[in-house]
Design a protein that fits this description.
4 helices; mainly alpha
């Protein structure tokens, strides 16, 4: 009987009994099924989050590709715009050079015409002054050399010539 009493007094017996009871209670209350269900739900949530993350990653990758494509298109368009602007500037410069050359040529021609006109006006003025001077000198010489009677006779002969030409 001592052995029988010692069996119940042994702490290892009580620990073994408690552990066995604990596992029996867990199985009886279907704790493993509950834990499996909780773990399955958590696993489903994690899978859903992974699917979400994957779709977000794919969407981000497609957006990145789209933005890179758009950026390349924008860079190409900007390059084309710059090339067009440079070509237009070169065209404008060449047109402006031609216009400036034409304007300079016209101004030169106008200046030459003004010079020719000024020369002609100067020659005309010199001629008029020369004629006036020669006439004045001839008058003075004729008046100094001509007598009063010669003067009257000259008037009579001029009047007669004029009379004969008119009638």
């Amino acid at each position: 009987m001592d052995e029988h009493l010692t069996f119940w007094m042994d702490p290892a017996t009580w620990v073994s009994l408690a552990v066995t009871l604990f596992f029996a209670l867990i199985v009886w209350k279907k704790i493993p099924a509950v834990l499996a269900k909780i773990l399955d739900e958590r696993s489903c949530q994690i899978e859903e989050q992974l699917k979400n993350a994957k779709s977000l990653r794919e969407e981000a990758a497609s957006l990145l590709a789209k933005y890179e494509k758009d950026q390349q298109a924008a860079e190409k368009e900007a390059s084309e715009l710059m090339d067009n602007a440079k070509a237009e500037v070169k065209l404008m410069i060449s047109e402006n050079k031609l216009q400036m050359e034409e304007i300079t040529k016209r101004r030169g021609e106008v200046a030459e015409q003004k010079i020719v006109q000024a020369e002609a006006a100067a020659l005309k003025e010199i001629s008029a002054l020369t004629v006036n001077l020669a006439t004045s000198a001839a008058r003075q010489i004729i008046s100094a050399n001509m007598k009063n009677s010669d003067h009257k006779e000259l008037i009579k002969s001029g009047t007669a010539k004029l009379d004969s030409k008119l009638h």
